[in-house]
């Protein structure tokens, strides 16, 4: 039932055209392409979530990259963020391989489902608040369907979007790398734990704000929480 429901939800996501600015941008990028990817047929549509439908860990990112997920059609696949994320997931045992280059590369996730706050590539990697609001129901429905034990938020925007799904948000919660919060609400829309990480963007990884060691600790913590 969960798989069928997620499949239907993802079909709805892929067909979404709620945000005119994002529709125009994602399709323009898909037409013009980057020189390095001239032979690719860009996805150019909203990018659905993917992974284990019975996952105990839900990962929430920001939005597709113009020449990453907007090209490949799979979250975090084909760009610098994914090149940092998937090796870490592989080391932690959540991913079947460390490389993510296309939807047909054989990558599978174990006990994990990956989604995003925004489903379309935004200009300048900055979705507008109203655009994120349009995507919010999709995130809420994913959480309802998967009912994860741990939600890992990659970046402040993902953290803020997950908090919007809570019926009873603790006032003491603040975003920080490695911050961990027990979700005490009885709402079925939330996981048991909320774990925060800096986003694996090149802006963070190439400046040393997020290191391999720091990132590995996040996934070790997530695995410990689901197995507790």
Question: Can you give a write-up of this model?
Answer:
The protein is of the alpha/beta class. It has a single domain (2-227), classed as 3-Layer(aba) Sandwich (Uracil-DNA Glycosylase, subunit E), CATH 3.40.470. It has eight helices and six strands; from the N terminus they run ααββααβαβαββαα. The chain has helices spanning 2-14, 20-32, 69-72, 80-92, 129-146, 156-163, 202-205, 212-227, and strands at 50-51, 57-61, 112-116, 150-154, 180-182, 193-197. Strands 1-3-2-4-6-5 form a six-stranded mixed beta sheet, with helices on both faces. It is globular. The model has no long low-confidence stretch (mean pLDDT 94).
Which features characterize this protein?
six-stranded mixed sheet, 228 residues, 8 helices, single chain, alpha/beta, 6 strands, Uracil-DNA Glycosylase, subunit E
């Amino acid at each position: 039932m969960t798989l069928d429901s997620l499949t239907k939800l993802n079909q709805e996501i892929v067909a979404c055209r709620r945000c005119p600015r994002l529709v125009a941008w994602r399709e323009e990028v898909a037409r013009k392409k980057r020189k390095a990817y001239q032979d690719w047929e860009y996805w150019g549509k909203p990018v659905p979530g993917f992974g284990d439908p019975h996952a105990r860990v839900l990962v929430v990112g920001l939005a597709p990259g113009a020449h990453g997920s907007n090209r490949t059609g799979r979250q975090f696949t084909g760009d610098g963020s994914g090149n940092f994320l998937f090796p870490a997931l592989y080391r932690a045992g959540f991913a079947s391989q460390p490389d993510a280059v296309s939807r047909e590369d054989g990558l599978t996730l174990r006990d994990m489902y990956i989604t995003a706050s925004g489903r379309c590539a935004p200009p300048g990697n900055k979705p507008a608040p109203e655009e994120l609001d349009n995507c919010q129901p999709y995130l809420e429905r994913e959480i309802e369907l998967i009912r994860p034990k741990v939600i890992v938020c990659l970046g402040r925007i993902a953290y803020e979007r997950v908090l919007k799904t809570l019926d009873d948000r603790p006032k003491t919660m603040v975003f920080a790398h490695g911050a961990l919060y027990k979700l005490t609400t009885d709402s079925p829309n939330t996981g048991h734990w909320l774990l925060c990480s800096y986003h694996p963007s090149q802006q963070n990884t190439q400046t040393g704000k997020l290191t391999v060691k720091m990132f590995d600790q996040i996934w070790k913590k997530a695995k410990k929480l689901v197995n507790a």
